[in-house]
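Supplementary Note 2. Why include the ligand at all?

Several targets in our set were suspected to adopt different conformations when bound, so apo predictions alone were not considered sufficient. For every target with a known small-molecule partner we therefore ran a joint prediction. The input for magnesium ion is given below.
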Amino acid sequence: MLPIRKKIVLFDIDGTLFDSRFFGERVRTQFTKTFKIDLVEVENVSSKYFENLESGTDFHPQAFIKFLAGKLAIKNAVLWKIFWENEENYKKALYPEVTKTLCQLVTNNKLGIYSQGFRKFQLHKLSQSGILDFFQKEYIFISRRKLRPSLTKSMPESSVIVDNHPGVVEKLNSTKRFNIIWLNRISNEKMASIQTIKKLGDLITP
Ligand SMILES: [Mg+2]
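The joint prediction is reproduced in token form.
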């Protein structure tokens, strides 16, 4: 693909910049080691928390930790410290090519975020992993449901949007307001009308 230049480029967070699945597994493993409890037990309780959510994007860190601490009868404050304050966990959850790609793109483009979830947690992932400063405040778009027209209509026309979610990219593409790039790390599938890349580094290699 052609190198991106002088554009507004908005990145999804989970599954695009940040491997939230890896982060979750790593944190749960640390919980089990710290409290000497069975991983299966931690995973079962975590799943129960998620089952009660209308959408995964309603995940709320404090509520999750409180739920876990209550069900497992362990200390909330210690769990919280592991979850929220361990910078290393966030850094390790960045996909390998993220920092290098953002570093190159930021010199010729304006970078931003297009993500869903609780704003404070989404921004925390970026700050703890060390990439928040790549993004301009006015181009950070975060909502609990990212496809809400109130959000998408507020995003600059013709922005390049990079997202790993097929449903999101198809829906956004249908608005014809943006240049969509689908990041598909998991298969060789491509979309006929939407540019597809296999890894983030493909944005900077011609
Ligand atoms: Mg995503």
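The two ends are 5 Å apart (CA to CA). The pocket of magnesium ion is lined by residues 12, 14-16, 163-165 (CB under 6 Å). Comparable summaries for the other entries are listed in the accompanying table.
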